[in-house]
């Protein structure tokens, strides 16, 4: 690890933590349909949260201290930045990605789910394509019996980065919303066509939920 890497890892996560935390305090936040998740929380079972890559920034600040959630971060330098950032909000991390250590990380997430824990996944990450659910989240739900709860975040006004995921950064004092979708269950005996149908169903649910979140904050 170079000196610049050490400096970056030492200063960027705490700085980002405080910036996002302060930004979260200014948001005019609304929570929509949280009862979808509450039914699972009250039952005490495992759960998989799914949210698009471009909408994930504020979620640790809004839910990190409310729930003990495990997230996957890659073994790269950027993954280390994400892991250190997420841990400052109370999230726990499992290292790996779809390209580096992915199978091992998925096994760890599956083990946590079988213990009744909660995990969060970014089904179109880490490199896209944007808005396309990858198969891993469906396999994880099938293997563990955990429901997938779609999650969306919207904010207006905000900045949209010119990145593959159109990463959303709310402006201070923006109207914002977190929308929960109905749980999606993947049967243990689901065959390949069945899993593909559920993958498309989750993709459609996340797309619709994100559109709904954007409509809420724009006053639609």
Question: Can you characterise this structure?
Answer:
The protein is α/β, with parallel strands linked by helices. It has one domain. The chain is built from seven helices and seven strands; from the N terminus they run H-E-H-E-H-E-H-E-H-E-H-E-E-H. Strands 1-7-6-2-5-3-4 form a seven-stranded mixed β-sheet. A hairpin with a 7-residue loop joins strand 6 (about 150-160) and strand 7 (about 170-180). The protein is globular.
How would the blueprint of this fold be written?
Blueprint: H1 3-26, E1 28-32, H2 35-43, E2 47-50, H3 59-63, E3 69-73, H4 77-87, E4 92-95, H5 102-114, E5 118-121, H6 136-144, E6 148-160, E7 168-180, H7 192-217
Parallel strand pairs: 1-7, 2-5, 2-6, 3-4, 3-5
Antiparallel strand pairs: 6-7
Helix pairs in contact: 1-4, 5-6
